[in-house]
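Objective 1b. Sequence-to-structure analysis of Glutathione synthetase.
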Amino acid sequence: MNHVFLIDPPESLHTEKDTSFALMLEAQRQGHGVHVMLRGGISRKPSGLVFKTRKAVVHDRAERPFKLSEWQESAASDFDVVWIRTDPPFDVHYLTDTWLLSEAGKRPLVLNAPQGLRTINEKIWAAQFTEITPPTLITANAADFHEFLRDHGAVVVKPTDGFGGSSVFIVRSGDKNAAVVFETLVRLSGYVIVQKYLPAATEGDKRILVLQGEILGAVLRLHGENDHRNNFAAGGSANAASITAEDENIVAMLRPHLTNLGIFFAGIDVIGGKLIEVNVTSPTCLREMQKFTGENLAKKIIDAAARAASGA
């Protein structure tokens, strides 16, 4: 099979911890063709979809991990699987990629499904599951924000389109910076996510990877000494994690929705047994998870993709 990875420029990837790179390594190990496509590499011609790609040979090493061919243009139908793995934000470029890839039909198989990617905002979508999420307010109204803050005493405030822990604040009742934090985030993203602060966040947040609606594995992300954010991009560290009955219940509630939306591979974030976010654009933490489990989880993902692409 031939796999195309729509990714950020290869030289920007931290391959030692990059999930896309782990998937490329495994696809290559299994004898599949690995190809790289960058943003802007999709064209819709009268004859159909065309991809501009480079064939890749990948090596699990710090120096020159990629060996890339010259650019070549091929019909999208020449490939079996397309992985949408560009990092957030979900901007107009990302949206246009999903529109174009929606025309792919059954070949190539696009993972995750473009319709699902358009439907799920990683921070807003989870709020509908009120039984398994902390109290959540989504608003651009300052009065609503201050009332919610008074009711809960301490809240986490973040933009609707942030990623990697960027612009995430803890605000407590009486904090004189509360108003300016809210105003700044409204200017940044229009609407703001406000969630009741969970003290369990001091113990880290759990990233659970979900493959075709089933739990693949988990890792605990723990913040550094001088930061409250647990994200790896904000300096958090990886720790071993186990799956609890609460985790299984969360995934069971999400499963039919993810399946119906064509979400093949997702990452969910859990704090204190509560769902915080559902990550579908470019779920990460696979390599950290594999280090703790000693299991080749990438093989399970590539195997599942191959089965799905072949209709098995």
